[in-house]
Amino acid sequence: MRFSRAFIPTLKEAPADAEIPSHKLLIRAGFIRKVASGLYDILPLGALVVRKIIRVIREEMDRAGAQEVILPIMHPAELWIESGRWDVYGKEMVKFKDRHGRDYSLAPTAEEVITDLVRREVKSYKDLPLNLYQIGRKFRDEIRPRFGLMRAREFIMKDAYSFHATDEDAEREYWNMYETYSRIFKRMGLEFKAVEADTGEIGGKFSHEFMVIADTGEGKLVYCEKCGYAASTEKAEQFKPEPPKDRESRFKPLEKVHTPNVKRIDEVSEFLNVPPENILKLLVYIVDGKPVAVAVRGDREVEETKLKRALGGKEVRLATDEEIENFTGQPKGFLSPLGLNIPVFADYSVTQMVNFVAGAGEKDYHLKNVNWGRDFKVEDFIDVSEVRGGQPCPKCGAPLVEKRGIEVGHIFKLGTKYSEAMGATFVDENGEEKPIIMGCYGIGVTRVMAAAVEQNYDENGIVWPKEIAPFEVIVIPVNVKKEEISEVSERIYSELQRNKIDVILDDRNARPGFKFKDADLIGIPYQVIVGKKVQEGIVEVKERRTGDRVEVKVDEVVEYLT
Ligand code: ATP
Ligand code: MG
Ligand code: MG
Ligand code: MG
Asked: Collapsing DSSP states into helix, strand and coil, what is residue 490?
């Protein structure tokens, strides 16, 4: 590639809406451009990186025994209705009608389509196992697209799905993919952790997220440096604290206080002079159509996944204001746990404290010294607290380290959720018909590109890891007007090409400083600088990451770089 002909529009300044380094740099260095919210053009440099990321993924997936397929991205609604997800997937799924008025979606994921393929073709245990993958576009109408390619609405994903006759075989493949993913991210030069992740409604212990460690990551993880335990903070196992034995001896008498116009937690805290964590807040959820109140300390919200888990995978949503007043008979915002006619669940941390402040079920009044057990009954305790760094590792007790991370991959043992719903069965050795056991495995290809930058940049620009750099080498003649410089540069350029090294020649007629700036910004791992010393048969090789410069003989440059 010759820079003079290349489409590499670099910019001095990043656009105002770019918040994090990878987003700013990918735009400034000419890798991507925004079309609309969450929609991006990937320019030639970006496409080269995507190609390299895909090459690594493809090589490792093939090596692991998976087979590549190409599935449609336009999915007929019938398949999603069969799996039960047409109505529950939510607004992230883009739906539309064809000219005949039939419903379709743009693929946010492909369990339905692949299960449909496999149920039509696989009949016997002899046809199993199978691991099929594709690399292509996914559409998710994210509520808050942001950070460029990191959370886009249209993006590239590698998604694989495996099919098995037995649970053991599904688990064998799960660990095969775990190893494969580890190799993929290692080859790409990324610092990552595979963390135990939430399995949501499917349950079980077979879900890992591959997180690239970065301060700007939207996810949080904890890990133990001693025993290797690692989990997303949502998933991390808890030591459930025992309720203190002498709780009741510390109860104070219940007191109702007039609190005019005091409503928010910070206002209550100030007015009654109690710490915010001693204020009990009631949140009303609708669980399988029935109301449940959840008592939490202070401002903590209950994450629905946690509540769902505590309730064994039931359908859960927050109640509307109207529902709250209908079901409790109390005004919203002043809910009292006393005499509440719906079941009360409590955050486990509530067991640790006594004498809470709570609403009085009446406008402008609060209750002081409310205690569960004496004043109100708790149906069950749920754990909504987060595991944090510094807390003991659930496996070995050493202090946990907490970091932020970017989810670049996710592996999941699905079991028979889709095969049962969609009738994907096989006949086993004894002639018995059984649902196929499945797993699914995703990698966000375009997100990897952003995550790699998030981990590899400095004040001058991107510093690509070699395996996924758009070019491995840039040859920079400091002055193309000087015949000898130009000639040697051309020679090195074609020599490198002959040796299958991805190289770009900056043959632009521009000042050297300008070219060096672009080379640093774009982040190509090696710069071959061809200057005055060519007269002595010498060029300079600069390593982008370290800034180290080495003088190398012209005849030895290719060897030096291979
Ligand atoms: P997130 O938690 O970030 O929303 P997810 O858990 O919804 O991601 P999965 O359904 O597990 O995503 O999809 C597999 C992979 O696809 C993710 O691990 C991630 O790398 C990538 N991915 C998901 N959503 C996006 C997006 N909006 N933009 C870019 N990549 C994405
Ligand atoms: Mg998501
Ligand atoms: Mg996720
Ligand atoms: Mg995920």
From this structure: helix
- Per-residue pLDDT tens digits for 470-495: 999 999 999 999 999 999 999 999 99
With a 6 Å cutoff on the Cβ, whether 220 touches ligand 1 is no
d(CA 517, CA 433): 65
Cα 341 to middle of ligand 3, angstroms? 36
pLDDT band, very low/low/confident/very high, at 241 (cuts 50, 70, 90): low
pLDDT of residue 235: 75
525: Cβ–Cβ under 8 A, 6 or more apart, which residues?
463, 464, 465, 466, 469, 472, 473, 543, 544, 545
* Ligand minimally distant from the alpha carbon of residue 150: 1
Termini Cα distance of the chain: 19
Residue 382 has pLDDT above 90, yes or no: no
Q: What is the pLDDT of residues 463-476, one digit of tens each?
A: 999 999 999 999 99
Q: Is residue 359's pLDDT more than 60?
A: yes
In the Cβ-directed half-sphere of 413, how many Cα atoms lie within 13 Å? 21
Sign of the Cα pseudo-torsion (227, 233, 238, 244, in order) = positive
Check pocket membership of 368 for ligand 1, CB cut-off 6 A.
no
Beta carbon of 157 within 6 Å of any ligand 1 atom:
yes
Atom 26 in ligand 1: residue holding the nearest Cα: 151
Distance (angstroms) between ligand 2 centre and the Cα of 216 equals 17
User: What ipTM score was computed for the predicted complex, to two decimals?
Assistant: 0.99
| Environment class of 356 (CB within 10 Å of its CB; exposed 0-12, middle 13-18, buried 19+) | buried
Cα-based angle 473, 475, 480 (whole degrees, multiple of 5): 165
Does the beta carbon of 195 lie inside 6 Å of ligand 1?
no
CA-proximal residue: ligand 1, atom 1 (nearest): 407
Stated pTM of the model: 0.80
Instruction: Say if ligand 1 is within 6 A of residue 158 CB.
Output: no
